[in-house]
Structures are given as C-alpha cells and as structure tokens.
C-alpha cells in the first residue's frame, strides 16, 4: 500500500496547484494510493507514523525540506524503525530544496514522477540528534550558530513570513542579512573520540547531505551513505570576512580558508555556556547541549 503526504503550502503554496495537475499522472505511473494533506507543523510525522502502523509500505512525501524531514522522523518511534521493510520516496517542491541536491534526479516534475516507478531502493544514513528533551533525526544538515539564527528568523518573524508569501528566496536573503548583522560569534565545546575542544565559531555544521541554506555547498565531501558525518567549522570569522568569502560557500571553495576546518567522524557532542539554538533541516529544534551521531544505512529510500 502507498501513502502520499502532501504539504499544499510548500513552494509558496504552489504545491497544491501542482498536485491537482499531477494527481492523475501519479496514479497512472505508480498505481492506486491514498493521500493526505498536512495542515500544520509536524503533521507529516504523525501521518507517516500512523500510515506505517496501518501497514503502508511505501511512503512518498511531497513538499520542501521541512516536510521531508518530518516524514522521515515519522518512520521512528522510541529510537527504532516502526517498519523494517517500509521504503521512503519524495518529490521536492520547496523554496530551498537542498536535500534533493545530494541525489541525481530528473529536473522536470513529470520526469520526477516517472522516476519513482523505476527507481531502485538503497539505504541511506541519517543523523541521530539527541538533546536534553528529545531524540530526532536529521536527513540533510544540522547546525549551530548563524544558520540556526537565520532559520529561527525565517520561521518566526512575522515580517519575514509575510515576505515569504511573495517571494521565498528574497525573504530568506533578507533574514540572512539581518541575522548576520545581529550575530555575535559563539564559544562552544565539542567532543570527538573522547577529546574535548573549545573554539569560537560563527557556524558549526554537521552534514549528511552536501547543501543547505538555499543551495549553499557547505559540505562538498559529504555523502548520504558513507557511514560518516561531515563536520564543518567556520571559526572566528568577522562579519566582514564572512561577507567577502560568502560566494565560496555556494561554490564549495571555502574548505581552503584557514578559518574553516573539516572533520570526518561518527559522533560529535557539543555544549556551551550560552543558550545556542540547534537548526535541523531548516527548523530550530531545541538548544545545546546535544549529540549528533551517524545512524548508518538506517532508512530504505526508493530514489536511486
């Protein structure tokens, strides 16, 4: 049985119109399915979880990065998979659409739909994130520092949310600029392989996928199935230097900077004396302390 979860508000509410246009093509391509629209935050998690418990074996999420992450979290309960043999697919229709860039997929929507039928299934890694209050999974990129402040502003500022209805990319750019001007670099402690390091950062990124923040090529060496996290530290960069080198972040050329460090690891724990937000796939999901650990080949994905 197939369950499709649709976020009609994604892509500046354009997904609803596309769904009405392509629903019949989906039926002709993959066969009969049930579908459900999300109405509020975390709906995709609850719908996915219930569908798996009801016996659905193929979950397809349609929406942006947030919808995809919510649906993936619905595969788990108390840290374990609800269904060992269920598979996940997605059609990315969002403002940023970063996770999809770690796959090689058709660009046209009709081709994406047809690809679902013939796609092969393979297992991918996820990032298991543990805070003092909850455990959840990140499929793409988690971070602390500037990116988390941008995500908070994008999702909670009334002005930015009003702008998102007109143009999502412009709204994200304005939120990023405001957050950058207001941001002050943070002192954090991180532990890898039992060794604790203290560092001042503008951003600390824990990557499974390669892109985040609206096509920022933050982790060019990351892979969704290599069994490792890519940790990228943007250290004590000034606001001026960050602006000067910003284009390098979108081209994946920032790793050569002396203020940037890349670390491959299976687990990292992070703490701070300051109250620092955690960004997970475009959403703020709590504050430090937190640990980030690779969950190797844990999710079956029919996208390859």
In one word, what is the shape? globular
CATH architecture of the largest domain: Sandwich
Cα-atom Rg, whole angstroms?
19 Å
Distance between the termini: 20 Å
> Tell me about the biggest sheet?
6 strands, antiparallel
CATH topology of the largest domain: Tumour Suppressor Smad4
What's the arrangement of strands in the largest beta sheet?
Answer: 8-7-18-15-10-11
SS field, number of helical segments: 9
Mean pLDDT: 94
Can you write the helix and strand succession as a string?
A: EHEHEHEEEHEEEHHHEEEEHHEEEEE
CATH class of the largest domain: Mainly Beta
Q: Give the helix proportion (percent range).
A: 25-40%
Which band does the percent of strand residues land in?
25-35%
The secondary-structure class comes to alpha+beta
What does this structure look like?
By secondary structure, the protein is α+β, with helices and mostly antiparallel strands. The chain folds into 2 domains: 2-119, Rossmann fold, CATH 3.40.50.10330; 141-297, Tumour Suppressor Smad4. Helix content is 31%, strand content 34%. It contains 9 helices and 18 strands. It has helices spanning 14-30, 43-53, 65-73, 109-118, 146-156, 158-166, 168-182, 239-244, 246-251; strands at residues 2-6, 34-37, 58-63, 76-77, 80-81, 87-92, 121-131, 135-138, 141-145, 186-192, 195-201, 203-207, 229-234, 260-265, 267-271, 277-280, 283-287, 290-302. The chain has a 6-stranded antiparallel sheet with strand order 8-7-18-15-10-11, covered by helices on one side. It has a 6-stranded antiparallel sheet with strand order 14-13-12-9-16-17, with helices on one face. Strands 2-1-3-6 form a 4-stranded parallel sheet, with helices on both faces. It is globular, with a radius of gyration of 19 Å. The two termini are 20 Å apart. 41% of the residues are buried. The model has no long low-confidence stretch (mean pLDDT 94).
């Amino acid at each position: 049985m197939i369950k499709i979860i649709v976020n009609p508000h994604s892509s500046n509410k354009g997904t609803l119109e596309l769904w009405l246009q392509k629903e019949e093509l989906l039926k002709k391509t993959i066969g009969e399915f049930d579908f459900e629209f999300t109405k509020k935050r975390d709906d995709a998690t609850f719908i996915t979880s219930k569908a798996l418990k009801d016996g659905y074996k193929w979950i397809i999420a349609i929406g942006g990065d947030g919808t995809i992450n919510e649906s993936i979290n619905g595969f788990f309960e108390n840290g374990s998979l609800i269904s060992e043999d269920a598979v996940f697919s997605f059609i990315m229709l969002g403002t940023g659409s970063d996770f999809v860039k770690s796959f090689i997929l058709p660009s046209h929507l009709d081709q994406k739909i047809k690809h679902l039928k013939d796609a092969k299934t393979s297992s991918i890694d996820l990032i298991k994130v543990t805070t003092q209050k909850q455990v959840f999974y990140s499929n793409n990129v988690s971070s602390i520092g500037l990116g988390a402040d941008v995500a908070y502003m994008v999702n909670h500022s009334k002005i930015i949310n009003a702008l998102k209805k007109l143009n999502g990319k412009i709204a994200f750019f304005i939120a990023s600029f405001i957050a950058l001007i207001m941001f002050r670099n943070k002192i954090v402690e991180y532990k890898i392989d039992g060794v604790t390091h203290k560092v001042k950062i503008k951003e600390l990124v824990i990557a499974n996928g390669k892109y985040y923040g609206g096509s920022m090529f933050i982790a060019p060496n990351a892979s969704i199935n290599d069994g490792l996290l890519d940790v990228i530290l943007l250290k004590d960069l000034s606001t001026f230097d960050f602006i000067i080198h910003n284009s390098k972040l979108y081209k994946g050329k920032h790793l050569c900077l002396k203020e940037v460090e890349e670390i491959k690891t299976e687990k990292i724990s992070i703490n701070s004396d300051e109250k620092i937000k955690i960004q997970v796939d475009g959403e703020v999901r709590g504050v430090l302390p937190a640990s980030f650990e690779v969950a190797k080949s844990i999710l079956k994905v029919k996208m390859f």
